[in-house]
UniProtKB/TrEMBL annotation:
Coiled coil: none annotated. Keywords: Hydrolase. This is MurNAc-LAA domain-containing protein. Residues 465-577 form the MurNAc-LAA domain.
Length: 588
């Protein structure tokens, strides 16, 4: 990329009208003429020799102005942007009892069953008496003030992930009230209203109604649905993190609902949450017939092995990879063991032992003990039922470890820009430059490569792993460059980082991370197990790398040079080779 210097003042982030989360500070980046003195809201910014600048400033809830000036040789440039910072109005004095109507939860409708718990929260005058009422169920149930704060929202990563703090709670502020109601066996209500009330010390009172309403039922007939998407996301709670991925056609039982997310029973003791748009309701009265598992057998395949478990109906099978990539744990829902046989196929040497246990009346657990570490697995519902395809390590040439290896290289983002640097450098362009260099280096070493994008074409995120899969990729490497959210100081927390999800990808992530440490000359931002879309493919080794920070001026300047782009690619390439050699040594 051509080196360019800023000639005018430009704030790149935050932009005019941006909405920022409820955090005490944000970074501001932009560009000014090289050598200028830049001040943002009274604080001096650090200006790189190319003119890119960065500074962290305190912010306050509501409409907030960010004013920037740059002075150089008597010339003065000015720019102001106005942003909206999320936050709460401060409660009034205790004698003027006040309640933030927008804070009342639940904010979406709930459909619950007996035994479930409903949590009601609100914010208002500290030290007040707080109660909640659920129409037709309970009147004046007590709420307790929680001065330590509430758990962070699901869409707000805790700052300790980036090294900022260790608290799972939002910043403590008084006036947060929480109450819980346990649904009783005889409780029934449809669209019941939920209200909260506060009473101040001098008798003043405030009341508000939650936007969400409550329905309680206890249907005698199971409500069954079928997954639609080949990548149906099962979350651990409403709006929470990923718990599992199910293919299309899997039958689940719906046992509750929060907003547009359905609670589904995955086994006798395990449940998850699925977006209702990913489910198709089965006809009323569809029986929840149990599968009787009568046999398990293994066969040899060109990639490794296949483990077949015949079953009549496609219920959820959860697969968990255990220590050293040599144990796979299967949790089979709505299944009862009728097992007297497990057959190890001729010429199949990957699966060493199969054991099973009926852990509750509806759940069968199967463990596969493998003779060697795998490079991935793929769960599928095929004739005669559930089949787990295992990918064994391929043969590796000691002299040319990349020879014959099938790689997919993903240049992150496009058409959206990704992170943007102080000088306006687009992450998608830098990612593509590094990916092209990596592609060339790997091809020169004998690898067969697939570039998931070769230019500025739009490739949907969900389509990218499919392209790698269709190309027969054994290894997927996704190239990105980093930023942090508002509230985290990028001048303190920056550098290179590497990400993986499945245990069979950890060794490669460590190998590349080690090469970054030795070759890039940047701070170590960390090695992460991260639930990212490009790390989630289970049927190959998949990692995502972030060699540097787009938003730090010095690192943006490096990323704009062909020399540093090639150094990043070389670090990944050498990390790949070192990983392959270690795999060869492990299997020798």
């Amino acid at each position: 990329m051509k080196t360019e210097h800023a000639t005018e003042l430009s704030i790149v982030f935050p932009g005019e009208g941006d909405h920022l989360p409820c955090v005490p500070s944000t970074f501001v980046i932009g560009s000014a003429p090289p050598g200028a003195n830049v001040v943002v809201n009274g604080l001096p910014a650090r200006v790189h020799q190319d003119g890119g600048f960065i500074v962290s400033i305190p912010i306050e809830p509501g409409r907030f102005a960010i004013s920037c000036t740059a002075t150089l040789s008597g010339r003065r440039l000015e720019q102001t942007v106005t942003v909206q910072v999320a936050g709460k109005r401060e409660p009034g004095p205790s004698e003027e009892c006040w309640l933030d109507e927008g804070s009342v939860q639940p904010s979406t409708d709930r459909a619950l069953r007996p035994g479930d718990r409903l949590t009601v929260t609100c914010r208002g005058t500290p030290g007040a008496g707080a109660h909640f009422t659920i129409e037709q169920l309970v009147d004046g149930a007590p709420m307790a003030e929680m001065p330590q704060g509430l758990p962070r929202p699901a869409d707000s990563p805790p700052p300790f992930v980036f090294g900022a703090d260790l608290s799972p709670f939002a910043e403590g502020e008084p006036g947060l009230y929480v109450g819980t109601y346990i649904i009783g066996p005889d409780d029934r209500v449809r669209d019941g209203r939920i209200t909260v009330s506060l009473r101040g010390e001098k008798g003043s009172r405030a009341e508000a109604e939650a936007r969400g309403r409550l329905t309680v039922t206890s249907p005698p007939i199971p409500e069954l649905a079928e997954t639609q998407s080949p990548q149906t996301v099962v979350r651990t709670g409403p709006g929470m993190g990923y718990g599992a991925i199910l293919p299309s056609g899997v039958i689940v039982e719906i046992t509750g609902k929060v907003g547009n997310e359905c609670r589904v029973a995955l086994s006798g003791t395990c449940q998850g949450w699925v977006d209702e748009r990913s489910l198709t309701a089965l006809p009323a009265g569809t029986p929840a017939v149990m599968n009787q598992i009568a046999a398990i057998r293994t066969t040899s395949t060109p990639e490794g092995a296949a483990v077949a478990i015949p079953m009549d109906r496609p219920y959820a099978v959860l697969v968990a990879e255990r220590t050293d990539r040599r144990i796979l744990h299967l949790t089979i829902s709505r299944a009862v063991a009728h097992l007297d046989w497990a057959r190890y196929g001729p010429e199949e040497h990957l699966v060493g032992e199969i054991i099973w246990q009926q852990v509750d009346p509806q759940t069968l657990e199967v463990e596969l003990f493998l003779e060697e570490a795998i490079w991935g697995y793929r769960a599928a519902y095929e004739d005669p039922g559930f089949i787990l395809h295992l990918r064994a390590a391929p043969p590796i040439d000691a002299a040319r470890p990349l020879l014959g290896r099938k790689l997919a290289i993903d240049a992150g983002h496009s058409p959206e820009p990704g992170a943007v640097g102080p000088l306006g450098t687009l992450e998608k362009d830098v990612n593509l430059a590094i990916a092209r260099s990596l592609d060339q280096m790997c091809r020169e070493r004998g690898a067969s490569t697939t570039m998931i994008r070769t230019g500025d074409e739009a490739v949907p995120l969900t389509r990218r792993p499919e392209i790698a899969r269709e190309a027969g990729a054994e290894i997927l490497v996704s190239i990105h460059n980093n930023s942090v959210p508002p509230g985290v100081d990028p001048e303190r927390h920056n550098g290179f980082s590497t990400y993986y999800w499945h245990p069979h990808s950890l060794a490669l992530a460590r190998s590349i991370h080690g090469r970054f440490a030795g070759m890039l000359g940047l701070p170590d931002f960390g090695l992460y197990r991260a639930n990212l879309a490009m790390c989630r493919p289970a049927d190959m080794i998949a990692v995502l790398v972030e060699p540097a920070f787009m938003i730090v001026p010095e690192q943006e300047a490096l990323l704009r040079t062909a020399e540093f782009q090639q150094r990043c690619a070389r670090a990944v390439c050498e990390g790949l080779e070192a990983f392959l050699i270690s795999e060869l040594e492990r299997t020798s």
